[in-house]
Amino acid sequence: MVLAERMRWIGRWGRWLLLATLLVYLFLPIVAVVLYAFSTKWTAHILPDAYTLKHWGSALSDVRLVDVALRTFVLAAGVTVLDVLLIVPAIYWQWTRNPKIRPHLELTAAIPFVLPYIVIAFGILSLSGQFIPTLQGTVWLLALGHVAIAFPFFYWAVDGAMAAANIPLLNEAAQTCGATPLKTLRQIVLPNVASGIATGSMLVFAVSFNEFALVQILVGARFETISLYSLDLLTGANADFNKLAIITCLTFVIVFFMSAASVYLNRGQTQTSRLVTGAKSTK
Amino acid sequence: MDSKVSIESAVLPSDGFQPRSLLQKVTQWLADWLPALPILIVAYGLLVAPVVALLIQSFLSQEGGFTVANWAEVLASRSDRRAIVTSLGLGAVSATSSLAIGGPIAWFISRMLPVQRSVWLAILNMATNFSGIGLAFGFVAILGTFGMLTLAFKELGIPFAPPAPGSFWGLVLAYNYTNIPLFILLTISGMGILRHDWLEAAQTCGATQWRFWRSIGLPILTPFLGAGWLLVFTWSIGLYGIPFALAGNGATRKVTLITLQISDILQANISGQGNAAVLAIVLLAIAALSLLTYRWMIGRTAQWF
C-alpha cells in the first residue's frame, strides 16, 4: 500500500512538473522577445538593465520598416484576392458541373505538404529560368508562387463550406428558376459559403505574410519583406535586436489574429487545416 | 450525383447529345473546364512542373546531355552525405523527443476538465503561430551569447551553458517549439479512444498501470503516435527558414542540412545547380516516403472512428 501511494505521489508530481516545464518552454522565447522590445541594455543580467519605449518610436518612424511592412501586406493581400478569384469558381464548377476537376485539385493540393518550400522555390526558379526568364526575380513570380503554395488551405476551407451548404441542391434550384451560372454564383453560392471563404482567406494571408523560402530564393533583396528584413536584423552586419523584437511582436499578433479568427469562423468543422497551417507557416 | 445529371439534362439538348464539329467539341470542353483552368494552370505550372524540371535537371550534364554524374557526385561528397545524415538525424531526434514529451502531455490534457483543456489547447495553438524568422530570434534571445538563459546560468554561478542556437541541440529546441504542440494537437483526438473503463477493467483483473499501458494502451495508440511522429519528422527535414537564421553562414556553421546545402548552392549561383537538384529530389523522396507511411498509419486508425 505504501509503495502504491508513493508511486501515485511521484506520478502526480511528475505530471505537474512536465506540464509546468512545457509552459515555461512555450512562454520563455515570447517573454524574451517582448522584453527586448522594451529594454535598454541587456547583456549582463537575467533581466534587462532598464526599460524604455524609445525603440517603438524609432521603429515606427523607420522608413525602411514601414516600406517593408507595406510591401509584405500588399503582397499577402494580393495573393489572397488572387486565390479567392481563381479557386472559388473552380470549386463551384466541380460541385455543379464537372466532377472530373476534383481529382486534379486534390492531387495538386497535397503537393505543398509533401514538398518543402525550399524545393518548390528551387523548382520554380529553375523552370522559370528555362521558359520565362523575363519573369525571374519579379514580384509577379513570387506572388504566383504564394498563390500556389497557399491554395490548399483555401481549397479545403471552401470545399468543406460548399459541402456543408449543399451547393448542388441550391444550384439546381437556382437554375430551375432560370438564373445564369454567374448570377447563381454571386447571389446563391457566395453568401452561403462566406465563412469558408473568410477562413480560407485568412489562412492564405498568414501563409504569404510569414513565408521565407520563396521570398528569399525567388526575389531576395529586390523585394524585401518582413521575413527578409527580420533575417537582416538578426544576422546582418548592423543587427538590431530591439527593432527585430518589435517586428516579431507585430508579426506574431497579426498571424495569431488571422489564425484565431479563422479558427473562430471555422468552429464546429474539422481541425485539420488549422493544425497543418501552424506547421507549414514555419517554413 | 443525381443533381448533376438533372442539371446537365436541363442545360443540354439530350443525354445522348454528341458534339459534331470540332468547334462544338472545343466549346463543350471549355464549358466543362474553363472556370477551373486558371487555378489548374497555376497549380500544375508552379507545383507539378517545377518538380519534374528538378528531376530532369538532376540527370542533366552542363552541356545538356543525360548523366548520372550529379548523383554520383552528391553521393560521393562528404559534406552532402553529412547533410543528408544530419537532416535525417535532426528530424528523427525532433520527432522522437516530441513523441516522448508530447505523448504523455496529450494524454494528460485529454483527461482534463473541459475548461482546463480548452485553455491548454489555446496555448498550444498560440505557440504554433510563433514561427519562422521570429521564432529563430526568440531562441537567440534565450540561448544566444547574451540570451536570457545563458545570462541566468552565468549570474547564478551555474557552470552550465545551454546549447547554442545554431548547434544541433539548439535546433532541436527551436524545432520542438512548434513540433511538440503540433504533436499534441495531432494525437489528442486519438487519446479519446482509450476509455477509462478499460483501465478499471484491467485493474479489476489485477493488472498494474504499467501492465495496462504495455498490453492495452500503447498497442491501441501506436498508429496515432506513429502518424504524429511521421508528420513531425517530415515537416522537420523540410524546415529551412529557422535553420538558415540560426545555423549561420559559411565557416561559422556547425550544422549542415539538406535544405541549407541546397540554399548554399543557389545563393552562390555557381554551376552546381545539378547537385542542388539531386539534393532536392532526395529531400522530396524522403518526404514522400514518410508521408506515404503516414497515410498507411492513418488508415489503421480509421477502425476506431
Give the structural class of chain B. mainly alpha
CATH architecture classification of chain B: Orthogonal Bundle
Order of helices and strands of chain A: HHHHHHHHHHHHH
Q: Would you state the CATH class of the largest domain in chain A? A: Mainly Alpha
How many helix segments of chain A? 13
Q: What's this entry about, in short?
A:
Chain A is mainly alpha-helical and 283 residues long. Chain A is 79% helix and 0% strand. Chain B is 75% helix and 0% strand.
Architecture blueprint of SSEs:
The complex is a heterodimer of chains A (283) and B (305).
Chain A: H1 2-38, H2 54-60, H3 63-96, H4 101-114, H5 117-131, H6 139-164, H7 167-176, H8 181-192, H9 194-210, H10 213-219, H11 226-235, H12 241-265, H13 272-280
Chain B: H1 2-11, H2 22-33, H3 37-57, H4 69-76, H5 78-110, H6 114-128, H7 132-143, H8 148-155, H9 168-191, H10 196-204, H11 209-238, H12 241-247, H13 258-268, H14 273-301
Helix pairs in contact in B: 3-14, 4-14, 5-9, 5-11, 5-13, 6-9, 7-12, 9-11, 11-14, 13-14
Task: Walk me through the structure.
The complex is a heterodimer of chains A (283) and B (305). Chain A is mainly α. Chain A folds into two domains: 1-52, no CATH class; 62-280, Orthogonal Bundle (MetI-like fold), CATH 1.10.3720.10. Chain A is built from 13 helices and no strands. Chain A has helices at residues 2-38, 54-60, 63-96, 101-114, 117-131, 139-164, 167-176, 181-192, 194-210, 213-219, 226-235, 241-265, 272-280. In chain A, α4 (101-114) packs across α6 (139-164), α6 runs antiparallel to α10 (213-219) and α9 runs antiparallel to α12 (241-265). The termini of chain A are far apart. The model of chain A is unreliable at 270-283 (pLDDT under 50). Chain B is mainly α and 305 residues long. Chain B has one domain (77-304): MetI-like fold (Orthogonal Bundle), CATH 1.10.3720. Helices cover 75% and strands 0% of the residues of chain B. Chain B has helices spanning 2-11, 22-33, 37-57, 69-76, 78-110, 114-128, 132-143, 148-155, 168-191, 196-204, 209-238, 241-247, 258-268, 273-301. The model of chain B is unreliable at 1-15 (pLDDT under 50). Classes of the chains: A mainly alpha (283), B mainly alpha (305).
